[in-house]
Amino acid sequence: MSGLGESRMDVLRYKQIDGIRIYINTLDYRTPHFHKDIELILVLDGDLDIQSETFHYVAEKGDMILCNSGEAHEFKKVTKSCTLVGCHIAPGIVKSEVPEFEQIRFADYNLKKRLPEELYHQVTESFLDMALYYFEQPEHYKLFCVAQAKYLIYLFLREVPYRILADGALKCGRHHNDRLQRMIQFVEENYMNKICLTDFAESEGMSMSYMSHFIKKTIHQSFQEYVNTVRFNAACKMLAADQMKMIDICFRSGFSDYKYFSGTFVSRTGMTPEVYRKHMIASRNTYMEDHERNKFHYTIHSVERFYSSEKSAEIIKTKKANLSN
To answer: Residues with Cβ < 8 Å from 189, sequence gap 6 or more?
Structure first.
């Protein structure tokens, strides 16, 4: 079960192979989310602040990060937007060879630091080769991608320490993620109105103190901080459309007054909403080529720029050429 649901995670629309999903995007923010797959992130440009249930790390250009199955994680840029290659690999890929893979949790996330330099270079090359085949789709590309995914998993199992969750712990983790999903859904449906943790705690039959601890432990922010982030992203989405008055955006995104709305933008971006809108539109018009502009995505869950398969393949080839030099 994905933290945002497959129908709502734009990244998953790239699906071409059962059990493998690869994408390239330039990211400002992606809300806390989780999935059954392991997720590999290779940073191509910029820095990426990754907040997971089990670690917090700022990944730099050239870093490859391994996010465990079932663990909530949040992505956000540090200064400028971060361009990355992401890959989801489902446990079913190695079900016959490693039937317990869904229960495996790797103890290290930073593959560049964990693996010997020569092996890390090999892993990066294999990862990029898989991505290039995925986007270009030459003959028998599915077979190649599955083989590469299995090879990478083999190397991770060989080189990275891991533990195997007991059945009870796996079941507990699923309940944990189901509750997180309900919290995300609750905020999504109510952020534009007055909203408080007490309402969600009552719907779950739990005390407010328990629910506050649960949210803080899981996504490393308070309930109100998460609500404010969703409201900010909702406002960004409306600002990007450039069709509404600023005061209407303020109230429709759930802010109680304009001063607080404006202050939120200044604290998060260093700009007033008016200036930020101009910045967004200018960035959208200059950053992407004409045929790429429709891949700009502002949602309440993420601010990301997606690329076509053709553009993705071009980016991969450039990265591979740089590695060879």
So the answer is: none
* Higher-scoring residue by pLDDT: 142, 2: 142
Amino acid at 279: H
Q: What is the pLDDT of residues 39-94, one digit of tens each?
A: 999 999 999 999 999 999 999 999 999 999 999 999 999 988 999 999 999 999 99
* Contact in structure between 154 and 147 (CB atoms under 8 Å): no
**CA-to-CA dists, residue 90 to 93, 181, 199, 256, 300, angstroms:** 6, 19, 35, 42, 26
Structure-derived torsion over alpha carbons of residues 214, 6, 252, 276, reported in degrees to the nearest 10: 100
Q: What is the pTM of this model?
A: 0.87
Indicate the DSSP class of residue 78. S
> Do 51 and 77 contact (CB within 8 A), yes or no?
no
How many whole angstroms from its chain centre is CA 235? 20
Q: Strand, coil or helix: what is 258?
A: helix
